[in-house]
Amino acid sequence: MSHSPAPDDAGEVVASVGPLDGVVVLLRDFLDRSGALRVIALVDQAPGRPPAVVDCPRSAPVQVDLGERTVYVPHAIELRAAAPALPEIRRLPPFDVDAAAGTVASPVGGLQHLADATRALARALGGRNVAFAQFATTDPTTPLSLTARSDDSEPLVVALGEQEFALEE
User: Domain limits of the chain?
Assistant: First the structure.
């Protein structure tokens, strides 16, 4: 791994996170294709170790929390890793939301499309890993978030601000 200090000495900047490079490539692909604000994956590591948290925000370094240390991968760096293919993902305009009423207005099928895409992302991670994607809304203080587990052992969760709703498949 190539190392250099991260901004404000928050962690080291690396050119690779080894076996997690494929996860970084997958999250960046999903982020770019979906227009998400942020995509996060919880990825199982070796037995006895906590899951790695790979946090891919838009236009910022990818943060990888390995449990014992946190490293940063420059967003635009080329990684030599293959990632599973994702289905077609369309970018949608920001959702119209009312957090108090728990309502989301989008183009017909828009929320279902992004829910299906987030499920596909989780399945591409494999195992019992988790995918989280955050999308813009017309209310900047209330982003819309989707969380899916790769093995479908739990329903997809839609969150508007602090409110959460299960979305059955």
Answer: 3-75+83-167
Which residue bears the tokens 């017909």? 108
Under 8 Å between Cβ of 130 and 149: yes
Residue 149 sits at the vertex; the CA angle it makes with 143 and 150, to the nearest 5 degrees, is 130
d(CA 18, CA 52): 12
Share of the chain above pLDDT 70, in %: 93
Task: Put the strands of the sheet holding 12-14 in their side by side order.
Answer: 3-5, 12-14, 70-73, 62-65, 52-57, 38-43, 130-135, 144-149, 156-160, 163-167
Question: What is the rounded distance in angstroms from the CA atom of residue 100 to the CA atom of residue 93?
Answer: 21
What pLDDT score does 10 carry? 61
Distance CA 32, CA 58 (A): 8
pTM: 0.88
With 0-12 CB in 10 A as exposed, 13-18 as middle and 19+ as buried, what is 2? Answer: exposed
Q: Is the pLDDT of residue 61 over 50?
A: yes
